[in-house]
Structure formats: C-alpha cells, structure tokens
UniProtKB/TrEMBL annotation:
Main localisation: membrane
Coiled coil segments of this chain: none
Name the record gives this protein: histidine kinase
Topological type in the membrane: Multi-pass membrane protein
Subcellular location per the Swiss-Prot or TrEMBL entry: Cell membrane
Gene3D superfamilies: 1.10.287.130, Histidine kinase-like ATPase, C-terminal domain, PAS domain
Record-linked SMART domains: HATPase_c, PAS
Keywords: ATP-binding, Cell membrane, Kinase, Membrane, Nucleotide-binding, Phosphoprotein, Transferase, Transmembrane, Transmembrane helix, Two-component regulatory system
Protein species of origin: Nocardioides cavernae
Amino acid sequence: MWSRLRLRPATLAGQFLVLQLTVLLAVVAVASVVSVQQSDADFRDTRGARLRAEAERLANTKIVRFSFRTDAVDANRSTLTSVTQRVRFEVQASGVYLADPDGVVLVSSDFGGRDRTIDLAGSTVQQLRPWTGDVDDFGTPSIAAQVPIINRRLELVGIAMVAQEYPTWAERARSVLPDLLTFAGLGLGLGTAGSFLLSRLIRRRTRGLEPAAIAALADQREALLHSIREGVVAVADDGTVTMASDSARELIGLADDVEGRRVDDLALDPAVHDLLADDAEIRDHVVVLGDRVLVVNRNPVIERGRRVATVTTLRDRTELLSLQSELSARESITNTLRAQTHEFHNQLHTISGLVQLGEYDEVSRLVGTLSRRRAEISDAVLAHVEDPAVAALLIAKTSLAAERGVDLVVRDDSALPRLDPEASTDVGTVLGNLVDNAVDASVSVGGDTVEVGLRLHDATVHLSVADTGPGVPADRVGEIFRRGWTSKESTVGGRGVGLALVQVVCERRGGAVRVRAGEGGSGAVFEADLPGAARGVEVR
C-alpha cells in the first residue's frame, strides 16, 4: 500500500509559496526582536524621564529634606513611608526608596527593602549628579532614577530612588503582537498572490514545464548536441549564437565559447559568416571549406508569427562527393561501352550480311572505312590532349555522341598535357558531366554539334563546352548549379546532380564554373576553371 503512495513533485507555484512563507516568517521573527528592542528603548527613555522627575520631586519634598538634614528620619519614618507610597502609586513604580549616602535603605515604599543596599553600580548620584539607568532592584532588573539629597553646605545626606521593573517577554510580545499579526497577514496575502502570478508568468514562458522537466530537457539537449553527427547552429534574431553542436564546431571551426557571442564577432570564413548571418531559407546549398564539402540547410524559427531565430544544419559530404564523382565516371564509361557495343553489333550484323551475300569487296571497304573513322577520332583527340584518361574519355564520348547524331569536336586551339592523377580525375569528372549535358541539350532541339576546348595555363586547367541546344534563360542562370535543378524529365535515377557536382569539384579546387550564351545567342557555353593542376610524369 505504502509503495503505491507517491508524493507528487512540488509545482513551481508551490515552491515559490513555501519560499515566500519562509522569508515572511524570518522577517516576522526579525521584526519581533527589533520591535521588542525598540519597545525596551522607548520604555527606557519614556519611563526614565518620568522616574527622574518623580525622584527629583521626592528629594525636594520638605519633609524629606528636613528629615535628612536634621537626622530625623527615624522620627518621621511613618510620614516618609506614606510619601514614598504615594509617589509609587502616582507613578506606578515598583519601588521607591530613601537611602543614606552609602545607599543603605532607610525608608521603603513596601517595607521590604529597609536596611538593604540599593544598586549604585555606574551611578553618579554620589557625585551629586542625578542619574538614570538600569539597576538590580533586589533581584529584579529595573530602570531607576537616583537623585541626591543635599544640605545647605552642598553635602550628600541621602539618596532618593524611584525604580520600575522591566516588563516580561510575554508582556512585551503582547504589546507588539497585534501590529505584527496585521503585517504578517498582509505579507502572507501579498506573498501568496505574488507567488501565484509569478508562477503563472514562468509557466507561460516555460511552456507549462516544471523545473524537473526543464532540467531533463536541458540534459537531453546536451546529450543530443554531443551525439549527432550533423552540425547544428542556432542563431537568435539579434545575431547571437544560442546553440552549436560539437560537429558544427568541428566542421566550420567554431570556438568552445561561441554560444552567447554575435556572429559578426566570430572569426569565420566569409562563406560561413554569410550563411549564419542571413535569415533566408535555403535548401541543400553546397559550400566548400578547405578540403571539406558541406551541404547546408537553413530554416527560420517562427513563434507567434514572428521570426525569432534560424537553425542551420551542416552535413559533411566530402567522402560522398568523391564516391559520387567516381560513380559518375563509372556511369559515363558504362554508357560509352553500351553505345560502342550497340555500334559494334550493328557493324557486325552488316559485315555478316555482306559475307552471306558473298560481297567480300564491300566487306573489305566497310572494315577499312570503320578503321579509318576510328583512327580519325583518336588522332583528332590525341592531337590536342596528351593526358590518357581525358583523351580516352573524349574518344568514348565522341562515339556516344555520334550514336545520337551529334558531332563532338575538339577546338583547334586546345592543348592539354599529361596531368597528375588527381587533377586528371577532376578534369574528367567536370568534362564528362558537361559533355553529357551538352549532348542532351543539343539533341533536345535537333542540334548537331558540341565543341570542347581544353588548355593548361599557370597550373590551371581551363575548359569550355559549347552546345547547340536551347540555351539557358537569363533569369535561371543562378539556379542551374543548384542540386536538383534540371530541364529534363524525372527518372528513377534522379536528375539535377551533374552540374551541382561540377560546381562542387571546381570550388573544391578553388576554381569556378559559369555559363553564358553561345555565339549568335544560340546554345550555351559552359566554362570551368580548375586550379592546382600539375603536369604529370610520362611513363615509358
């Protein structure tokens, strides 16, 4: 039974109420002590002045002065006792005494203090100066006024003392309790109302979550930021970085103390700074940082119709790009081989038919023509391109284009020497994708020519591919290199990857790719620059 009983966790309002009550009780306790002390001070000042006035009046009474000056105290004791009792009654004192110069009580208002010595510690009465202060009134803490009784020769002949005992703690508390209860009740009411309103405000700001839930979310957030492989950066509307995952710090070089700092104050690559500082939505934007290729997405965070932040995600696609580039090369080779196989089948069928017809001279002429055409294609490419991988790609693409009715030609001013393997691979990737797009564009409108230009200058490969297709509309030039953009119909394999891959390969090497209209306004010319290409060593 008891195991099923669980205390509900305290709500935020309950915690604030308990805190307010605790503070209020502490304030009441302190106020009580201060009030009692203030009451004592008031009592000491007020009663001390009254007691001193009565003691001076008693000391100056004729019968008192006469009795002490003539040593007639014993003779007038009953009268003196009556005088002290009257003073005690009028001033509501606890004791009234007439003593000799040494403080021995000669006359007491209650007959109990006779022949006992009054407390003269700290008193100045024996120096003929009236005094008011705290005394021990025969075991009772009291405040007393002591006034000297002097003769005509200004000699001390007696002491008049009027004493009033301090009220008890209960009496003091009763004097201040009504006010304390009033203020305590008022404070409790205000504290309860304030706690309720404050809890409502905090619940609204925290989406109704209690502190335990907020702490759990914070722990989960930290665990998530340390575990996800994608980079995540959140930037507030004022340009302050509010969150950055470990992967984001590594990918774009953020410092550990980046959170809480403005984007403009961070030492970031200009491309990264523009991505984080802007607030427009972007999808699959490719950014090249050093040797990394990042795919960036940015989404605004909208709260109650107002943009309050942006969240940018970064995916490292460096390895995927390499695989995609290699796959593109393999796909190009596969398509080329497929086209050549189809062409060889047609030629073999033709030769087989001529043999069956006994037209051996025609067979000889056909074989010669085919061999001559193949040699012409190879010679036309090798005359301008010495790099074997690029030359083989152009020869294969020429055959593939010819099958589709397009003449692929290399410009006369082209000159590309042997390149280092990495540069050769990148040139092949860029050239293969541009040629494929150019052939597709030309075929779509009945064009028949694709022209390729290649040259190496200052360790930078400059290549151009001109088609006789429909061209690129001026208002869409900025979109054609975006991943997913295509002018072709969708297929199962996907479209819109080739030009995006070309741009990424060029930017990774520090170059660029651009497009312009062809001569006479027909077709399009794609130009790409790939820096950092070193001459390769020819193997013999």
